Structure formats: structure tokens, C-alpha cells
Inverse folding.
């Protein structure tokens, strides 16, 4: 049941001090460095996307998960190959952990012919069941019952899979959040919901979405496990998700994990987030999940400055290639607009 | 061959597909122990067990969402709406998740949402609706509305096997009133009815009535009555509302040159309106009179029998309209 001992409001978690302890983990050094790689990749891909946006190459909106990389990466890293995940718009890190190539996302944003959806949809709105990825829709909450159905089907098919998805603080106000989580609880399916409390739903603060301080408290209302986690500590997110995934896989039913984090940019690239008090950005900048993890790796002798620089340099070189590839893809042929409304033959 | 009701045909189609394909399962309210509000699934729980006959909370959106997820995984979920009116509570999952999924990212969503539609049973505003036109507008869906026992059976089996999201609207007025032979089912797909094909329910020379569902029987009864006047009605049963059978619609118009589109929907923004528009656009030169929509008025469905009779199209209203148009 929900652990609610700590009255931890969404905007004032413990301040990260230099050299602070992150959550205890059993992950060996190599895997911790892999976590670091994915968080850096997440941020650096988004930095490249920002450049492409400013060059006018991105034809639609651009959504950033800056400051929230630990939540996406840490949670996705706790999944097994057979598990299924439904990332939302700020979960690029989840997709990268599942094997999505940066070029795929870049081509999506630029609406290129070779993008995973062939130009029919944009941004992170694509899926691939072979990699365990389900595409979201923009209507928040809707993925929750869908992932419940995936978990149910997996159980029916005797697959040992767990389904996981995300919801923002704003998205918890939808009907599908309630209907989906309640149905998952009643069916006792292997399902994990990460509620990413980043303080703001577009321009609306969490305090105007709900009167409670902790989304995790809602777990009690569904009779499922609930937990709060420092969303800017990748190890804490990983460990909490791993516990929930293990519980789900062993028949213990769904879990709701609230990840306390902060959205360091606007709702999308066009939004300067002028409505967010500057102090909040300043406070949370000190808790940047990547910098905290760097301090952890360096402070605990798991890596030195050279190691981290080498990881960054490798990503940078890779992204040069990814950007070149994405830019070279043509725009889709116009006639594609009329194709594929119906599936012609059964393939699933 | 066995004579069954329309409801029994629905039930038999579900039963046969569940026997044939273990991927088929049902989600709904009170469909298990109780056997469904209309007893469509009576006996299913005993035969197929709680793993495949799943009673859910009152959560239409989550029922359909759950079906979307299971369908993507290769299952064949069927969602029962206790009354089809409640499909509105699942609108988002149907039109935004299920319908565009294949177009957006190539992933099939083979699911069926089914339930009792239609009026004339004094169900009032929330147990009488015909919601097809809300969905007619949405690319990616298929919409079926059987008006015969054979179609109730064969279209449902076809719907369950279709790789797309299919909405299947049963007409509750026909549930126990309509009886006919059940096509030989089971085995290798006998009794299947092809989705997307209208059926010429009655051949005639003078005027075409294009219709579906319970209104099919209004049209056939009117045709019998009009024989005495020397008016020979042709009746086209659409059966599939989306995608519409354009060829069959144009063929009957070219034959008779006079058309009434008879449906049980509120008239504005109706399927009937779409049929009429297609005829005006693609068969204008074949017409000898205006294309008439005989539908319900733009009001909610009223409760009292006198009000509902005034609201619904019926044989008298159709006969009067046919005479008027025949004389045009």
C-alpha cells in the first residue's frame, strides 16, 4: 500500500547538495555508466532537435524532457526485453533505452519519408511492438487503459510481460486515469504507472490540478501499491520501478509510482514558460539529474572526468551521423496521404 | 434448418467465433454471471470461463482502451456496450486511439464494439439512440448495422475476423421480433457476410428506398402495401454503413431514378445525409426528383409512445412520401 510517511510537496524536495548520496543500487559500474549514456543521449538528442527546430527543419512543435531524463531512463532501464512500454511526449529517454535510434525521432520531427510513420505522424508518436513500444495519443490518460489491455493480453497469452506507461501531473485529472488504473487494479494485471509530477501542466501548476500534495496517495484509492521517488535521481527511479515490475511480474498487481521532478523548459519549444517563477528553475537547476549522477559517479570512484568526456564525445560523433542521415531523407510522396486508413489483411 | 431470433443469431455468431478462435474474448458489464442485460451472453461464462468472459467496472472508456491494447497484442476482443448509447463514454478511445492507429503507425487494432441500438421500445433518450453518424465521420472505422438474421450472424463473424476496429450496431427492436433461418455456421466460415456490400432486399422498378436496420422492415412492409397502387419499390439494405457500398447505391439510383433514404437517425448530419450527398454528386443526371431523407427529427428520442411514434419513421410516413415522390 501507499507509503506516505514523508510530506513531500512536488516543488520542494530535498535540495541536492554537492556530492549527495543517490539511492542505493545493486547495479554494477558498467550498467551505471550505461544509465549515464542514455541520460546524456536523451539530452543531447533534444539539444540537436532544438538546433533543427531553430533552423526551421522541424515542421511541428518540439517537446523537451530536459530535467526529466532520469525518470524516463531509470524506469525504462528496469524493464526486460519482453515488457511493453507506452512512452508519452516527454519520454524520449524511454524510447532510446528500448533501442530507438536518434535518426528515427529526428525524421519524425522533420516529417521525413523515412520516419517510422512515413511522415504520417510526428514527434515521439510512433510505436513498434517488436521493441515493446506503443505509440501514445495526445489525449492524456488514454494510454493507461490501453496498456492495461496489453498487460491483460500478455497474461492470457502466457507471456511473462509487464506493461508500463507514464502520466503527467495534469494527466491524472482525466477520466481515463481513473478508469484505467481502477480496471488494472480490479483485473490485477501486471502494470506499472509512473506519474511524472513535473510541477506544471502547460501553464497550470500542480496545485490547480489537485488538492493533494502527493499523486502517490491515489494508489490507496485503487488498492494498489504506491510509492514516491526522487525523480531526479536515476538510481531511485530505477530501483523503485524494478520493485514495481517485480511485484507485477510475480502476480502482485499494478503499482503507481510518483516521480517528483521538474520541467526545465516550456510546454513546447514555442513556450518561454514565463509563468514559472524564476526561483523554481534556479532551485531545480541545482538538482539537474545528469549533473547529480555525474557527481555520484565521480564521487564514488565509478568514473573519472575522462570517462564521462569519452561517453559524451562518442554520442556527439554518433549524433553528427544521425542528423546527416535524417536531413538526407526526402519528404514523403503526396499520394501517401491517402494510404493505409484500413488494414487490408490480418497481421496480428 | 433452425429458425432463430435476431438475438440468437448474434449470440450464435459470438459463440461460434469463441469456439473457433481462442484469441476471441469479451469485455462488458454484467456479461458473465448475469449473461448480459439482453441475455446475449447467457451460458458463455460456464463454457468459456472468467478468463474470456470478463465482467468489468462501469468504465466504457477503459473497456475499449483495454480492448485496443489486447487487440494490438493479437487478441480478438469484443466489447459489449450494455446499450449502445453508452458508446459515447468511449468516444475518445474509439475515434482517437483505435480508428487512426493503423494509419498513424501501421499497427492493426482488430476489435469489435457491439451493442443494442435503436428505438421503438420506449427506452427514452439514453436507451434508444442510433449513434452511427458520430462515427461515420471517422476514418479507420467500419460500421455495421444488420437488419436480418442472416446478416446479424454473418456480419458479426466477419467483424470479429476483420483486422480493423468494427462497430456493430444490433437493433434491439428486432432482437426477439425477427425470426428466420440461421445460416449454416461453424466450421470453415460458412454464413460469413462480406463487409462493405449492400444487399438488394427487394427488386423494383419505380422508386428506391435505401435503408438499414429496423427500417429495412418498414420499407419492405411499405413495399407490400404500395403494390396495390401499382408502385414497385426497390429496397436496398446497406448493412455496412462504413465503408458505404457506393456501387450498389448508384446502381439502384440509375435503375429507378427516384430515391428515399430511410434511416432511424436524427436527420442533420446523418448517414442518410451522406448517402443523399453522394447520389446528388455522382448520379445527378439519373434523378427524376429530389433525393429525400426520411429520418427522425432533430430532437432527443422521446419516451411516451405517442411522442416516439411521432418521432420515428414508420410505414404510413414512408408510403405517403413514396406517393409524393412517385408523382413528382
Amino acid at each position: 500500500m501507499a507509503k506516505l510517511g514523508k510530506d513531500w510537496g512536488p516543488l520542494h524536495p530535498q535540495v541536492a547538495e554537492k556530492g549527495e548520496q543517490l539511492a542505493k543500487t545493486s547495479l554494477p559500474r558498467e550498467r551505471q555508466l550505461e544509465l549515464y549514456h542514455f541520460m546524456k543521449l536523451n539530452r543531447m538528442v533534444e539539444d540537436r532537435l532544438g538546433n533543427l527546430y531553430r533552423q526551421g527543419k522541424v515542421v511541428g512543435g518540439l517537446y523537451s524532457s530536459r530535467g526529466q531524463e532520469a525518470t524516463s531512463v531509470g524506469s525504462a532501464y528496469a524493464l526486460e526485453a519482453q515488457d511493453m512500454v507506452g512512452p508519452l511526449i516527454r519520454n524520449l529517454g524511454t524510447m532510446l533505452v528500448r533501442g530507438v535510434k536518434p535518426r528515427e525521432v529526428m525524421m519524425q520531427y522533420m516529417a521525413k519519408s523515412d520516419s517510422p510513420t512515413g511522415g504520417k505522424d510526428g514527434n515521439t508518436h510512433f510505436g513498434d511492438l517488436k521493441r515493446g513500444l506503443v505509440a501514445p495519443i495526445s489525449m492524456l490518460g488514454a494510454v493507461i487503459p490501453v496498456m492495461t489491455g496489453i498487460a491483460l493480453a500478455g497474461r492470457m497469452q502466457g507471456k511473462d510481460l509487464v506493461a508500463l506507461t507514464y502520466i503527467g501531473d495534469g494527466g491524472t485529472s482525466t477520466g481515463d486515469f481513473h478508469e484505467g488504473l481502477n480496471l488494472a487494479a480490479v483485473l490485477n494485471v501486471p502494470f506499472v504507472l509512473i506519474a511524472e509530477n513535473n510541477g506544471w501542466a502547460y501553464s497550470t501548476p500542480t496545485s490547480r490540478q489537485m488538492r493533494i500534495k502527493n499523486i502517490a496517495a491515489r494508489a490507496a484509492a485503487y488498492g494498489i501499491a504506491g510509492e514516491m521517488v526522487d525523480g531526479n535521481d536515476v538510481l531511485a527511479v530505477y530501483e523503485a520501478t524494478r520493485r514495481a515490475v517485480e511485484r507485477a511480474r510475480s502476480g502482485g498487481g499494478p503499482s503507481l509510482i510518483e516521480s517528483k521532478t521538474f520541467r526545465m523548459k516550456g510546454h513546447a519549444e514555442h513556450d518561454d514558460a514565463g509563468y514559472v517563477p524564476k526561483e523554481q528553475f534556479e532551485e531545480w537547476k541545482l538538482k539537474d539529474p545528469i549533473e547529480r549522477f555525474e557527481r555520484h559517479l565521480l564521487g564514488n570512484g565509478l568514473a573519472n572526468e575522462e570517462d564521462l568526456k569519452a561517453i559524451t564525445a562518442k554520442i556527439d560523433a554518433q549524433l553528427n551521423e544521425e542528423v546527416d542521415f535524417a536531413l538526407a531523407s526526402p519528404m514523403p510522396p503526396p499520394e501517401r496521404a491517402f494510404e493505409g486508413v484500413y488494414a487490408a489483411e490480418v497481421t496480428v | 434448418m433452425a429458425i432463430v431470433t435476431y438475438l440468437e443469431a448474434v449470440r450464435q455468431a459470438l459463440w461460434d467465433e469463441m469456439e473457433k478462435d481462442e484469441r476471441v474474448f469479451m469485455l462488458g458489464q454484467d456479461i458473465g454471471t448475469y449473461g448480459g442485460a439482453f441475455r446475449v451472453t447467457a451460458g458463455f461464462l460456464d463454457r468459456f470461463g472468467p478468463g474470456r468472459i470478463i465482467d468489468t467496472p462501469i468504465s466504457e472508456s477503459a473497456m475499449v482502451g483495454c480492448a485496443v491494447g489486447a487487440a494490438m497484442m493479437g487478441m480478438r476482443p469484443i466489447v459489449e456496450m450494455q446499450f449502445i448509447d453508452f458508446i459515447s463514454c468511449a468516444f475518445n478511445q474509439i475515434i482517437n486511439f483505435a480508428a487512426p492507429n493503423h494509419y498513424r503507425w501501421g499497427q492493426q487494432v482488430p476489435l469489435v464494439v457491439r451493442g443494442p441500438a435503436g428505438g421503438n421500445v420506449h427506452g427514452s433518450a439514453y436507451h434508444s439512440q442510433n449513434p452511427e453518424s458520430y462515427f461515420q465521420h471517422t476514418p479507420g472505422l467500419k460500421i455495421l448495422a444488420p437488419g436480418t438474421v442472416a446478416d446479424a450472424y454473418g456480419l458479426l463473424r466477419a467483424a470479429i475476423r476483420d483486422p480493423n476496429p468494427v462497430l456493430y450496431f444490433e437493433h434491439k427492436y428486432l432482437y426477439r421480433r425477427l425470426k428466420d433461418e440461421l445460416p449454416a455456421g461453424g466450421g470453415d466460415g460458412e454464413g460469413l457476410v462480406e463487409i462493405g456490400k449492400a444487399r438488394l432486399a427487394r427488386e423494383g422498378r419505380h422508386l428506391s428506398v435505401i435503408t438499414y436496420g429496423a427500417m429495412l422492415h418498414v420499407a419492405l412492409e411499405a413495399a407490400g402495401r404500395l403494390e396495390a397502387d401499382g408502385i414497385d419499390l426497390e429496397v436496398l439494405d446497406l448493412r455496412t454503413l462504413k465503408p458505404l457500398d457506393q456501387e450498389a447505391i448508384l446502381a439502384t439510383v440509375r435503375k429507378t431514378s427516384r430515391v428515399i433514404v430511410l434511416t432511424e437517425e436524427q436527420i442533420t448530419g446523418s448517414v442518410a445525409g451522406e448517402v443523399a450527398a453522394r447520389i446528388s454528386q455522382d448520379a445527378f443526371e439519373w434523378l427524376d426528383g429530389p433525393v429525400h431523407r426520411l429520418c427522425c427529427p432533430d430532437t432527443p428520442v422521446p419516451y411516451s409512445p405517442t411522442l416516439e411514434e411521432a418521432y420515428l419513421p414508420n410505414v404510413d410516413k414512408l408510403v405517403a412520401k413514396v406517393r409524393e415522390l412517385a408523382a413528382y
About this structure: The radius of gyration of chain B is 19 Å. Chain B has a mean pLDDT of 97. The domain at 3-181 of chain B is CATH 3.40.50.970 (Rossmann fold).
